[in-house]
Design brief:
about 120 residues, alpha/beta, Rossmann fold, 5-stranded parallel beta sheet, 5 helices
Length: about 120
């Protein structure tokens, strides 16, 4: 199954990303926070995560460490509305599978997800 977990606190962005990814043949699951995602009992199997870097509560940059703590290795593609050198550097540290500034180029995002699912660290 080609599942993409979307973690974004902006509901309109969630809807737009889910619609785009479903049209490209992905199964999507939406979460408004990192905490909700990690508490959901993420199922087994492969997938990819799209996570906004800046959200209330735990930010997306903390996600790879949290995934590791619960024994899941999923590639994470970061999204941000505030593209800065600091954010790009921070996203590289946890080993991001991708990094995109919003608004995201649809085809580039789909290509990055496809690449991450084949080459990323998914179960």
């Amino acid at each position: 199954m080609r599942r993409v977990y979307i973690i974004e606190d902006d509901e309109s962005v969630n809807r737009a990303l889910a619609r785009l990814l479903r049209s490209a043949g992905f199964d999507t699951r939406i979460f408004a926070s990192v905490e909700a995602f990690t508490a959901s009992g993420i199922g087994s199997g492969s997938g990819c995560v799209l996570a906004d870097i800046q959200m209330s509560g735990c930010g997306g940059l903390e996600l790879p460490e949290r995934l590791q703590r619960i024994g899941r290795q999923l590639p994470v593609i970061f999204l941000t509305a505030e593209d800065t050198d600091t954010a790009r550097t921070a996203a590289r540290r946890p080993g991001a599978a991708g990094y995109f500034r919003k608004p995201v180029d649809d085809q580039a995002l789909i290509d990055a997800i496809e690449w991450a699912m084949v080459n990323g660290r998914s179960d």
